[in-house]
Amino acid sequence: MKIESLEIPEVKLLFPRKFEDERGFFSETYNQEEFSKAGITQDFVQDNHSFSKSPGVLRGLHFQREPYAQDKLVRVLRGRILDVAVDIRPNSPTLGKSVIAEINADDWNQIFVPRGFAHGFLTLAPDTEVVYKVSRPYTPSAEHAILWNDPDLGINWPMDESQLILSAKDTNAMSFKKYLETVRYEN
Q1: Could you tell me which residues are beta bridge partners of residue 131?
Q2: Fewer CB in a 10 Å sphere around the end CB: N or C, the chain?
Q3: What is each CA distance from 27 to 21, 54, 95, 131, in whole angstroms?
């Protein structure tokens, strides 16, 4: 498996090997020993699977607060997504910066998003299926969202806002400034 660090080195792009023949293919998408060599030492406790019918479905920017914060290993079974991870670690030199990567079934790539990042994705193709492992179970009381189009984050989404399909939770998420205020209040 090829593993690369992105602009924020804690976020990793992974390329599992795919062995194809006339029957189909085989791929090892998770290997604890290989991940550990690359500095990914989390134990995953839950798998999630989402399906989006249309291009333009935007899910995020989601995170869970400590002690329920999640590491995520995201891959696409069918379709394509633009995956976004925003550094929300209060003392990080890259606080508020984002890492963006296209993850798709054709390239058979994955992205590792560590805890301390708000995460979201935009579907770029119809009938997109995304699966991801998480290191902590879903905990509704710890779940939060930061506004996907917050100007302080400056994320360049490749679709016009009128083309996007969002949940009420994502439409009404807190601003990045509000998030920073809540972090200062907690510390």
Answers
A1: 49, 75
A2: C
A3: 12, 27, 35, 15
Catalytic residues, by residue number, are 62, 132
What separation in angstroms does the CA of 20 have from each of 25, 27, 109, 124?
4, 9, 16, 26
Beta strands 117-123 and 18-21 are unpaired
Model pTM score: 0.94
Q: For residue 87, which of 167, 183, 186 has the smallest C-alpha distance? A: 183
Residue 67 near residue 124 (C-beta atoms within 8 A): no
Partner residues linked to 144 by β-bridges:
63
**Which among 136, 134, 138, 123 has a CA at the least distance from the CA of 30?**
134
pLDDT one-digit tens code per residue, 24-41: 999 999 999 989 988 898
- What spatial distance separates the first Cα and last Cα of the chain, rounded to whole Å? 39
Q: DSSP letters of 25-40?
A: EEE----HHHHHHTT-
| pLDDT digit string, tens, across residues 126-140 | 999 999 999 999 999
